[in-house]
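Aim 2, interim progress: modelling of the TNX-bound target.
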Amino acid sequence: MRLPLIPVPRSVQVPDGGAPVPLDGAVLVAPPGVAAYAAGLLGLPLAEVSDLAEASSAVVLSEQPGQGEEYTLRAGEGRIEVTGGAHGLLRGLATLVQLRDLDLPDAPAGAVPAVEISDGPRFAHRGLMVDIARHFFGVPTLERVIDLMARYQLNVLHLHLTDDQGWRIETPSRPELTEISGRTEAGGGPGGFLTGEQYAHLVGYATDRGIAVIPEIDMPGHCNAALHAVPELNSSGEAAPANTGIDVGFSMLRLDNPATAPFLTDVFTDLAAITPGEYLHVGGDEVWKMGEEEYAGFIDLLTGIVAETGKSPMLWGEAAVAGLPGDALIQLWDSNKDPAPIVAAAEQGAKVVLSPGKRVYLDMQYHEGYRLGQHWAGYVETRDSYDWDPLEYAPALPAEAVVGVEAAIWTETIVTEDDLFTMLLPRLAAAAEVAWSAQEDRDFDDFAARVREQAGIWRARGYAFYPSPQVFGE
Ligand code: TNX
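Predicted structure of the complex, ligand included:
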């Protein structure tokens, strides 16, 4: 039996004639770090190891320190045992939930087939960037995004929190940012922003699922929301008008403005204070109207401020021209640009995450004339997101510098939650498998068959998706 799991695990063995394990009536034994989350996810009561002898069926999670995200899952004879490090247990749980939810011929509803799985990720960074600046998406939608990410073994949620159209994160040192630019968005809608409390809730929700949140404040371009809320950032001293269009590349801060450096220090210090993770993303993309020297000065300033906060900087690929510190994480996105500066930075120790537009920009239209999305990087159908090898994508990069893959969804044209999930699915599942599974275990037709099985869960959970003809047929 081929199990329709996504991403495809490293090794799956289905013993002949093994009886499925019913979850109905099972008890759960789990270490404290994951117990509450696992009990909620599986809907099982917690028990002690000493109770196991009497339990007719049980799920037992046992933590083995130092195993990273690797896990094993064994189901049979009334027991489901998952072993791994703290994060490995979470990945094993994601697989267990898929096994429970899928309609499998050999297991009744709610039961898990007898199986032995041993699994672990190809890449350490498996991300999704969500732009909540062009159009705002709040806590309920982002929780549903995180749920989906957890289901498919993704582990980094990158939130694009600011852009020309709005400022989406409460920034205590500069309250006017959200008071003024929290109310604007592309197309003139009401906007919105995350309060510090809501943001902390999301970070906790993600952390429970083994997902790190990387917040981005995009500077020194893509900053009209700041120019609109903070007059002194403008050379004229007057607030810029709000921007509700979707052009890029026009706005920028100025390095010689005495208000600029204190502003950046304030906002990134505030951001660091609500970020338990290692990285702050400082942007750096598409500053089209700035000279090279001023741009490099900005990148130095930004990476210096991030260092002061004790974090490491993440930046869009073009920032590599400035020369980056060895702890930088570079997000390569534009396949048309010369990769030499990124290669040079990688040779100095920087790491690279791959976000090639023509593969994993999930705001690209599925096909010509599709009702959502743009197409500057091409049309991106499911197979485009799936059929590529990250290590062959930028061959000049030292392989050890490539730490992962990050899909991105920009929201210029994406307004509703259904729009968002229609663009994410099924391509996010493809990106997740690219990032997790070994290249030699991947095959598009096989993936498409598994997506058809997974779509039942999407329907049941109310996730909109694009019925790609490549997957579902014409
Ligand atoms: C490029 S990718 C951008 C974004 C746009 C996106 C639209 C990148 C770093 N910048 O500002 O939203 O294209 O696809």
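Residues 292-309 form the longest helix (18 residues). The chain has two domains: 11-119, 125-439+462-472.
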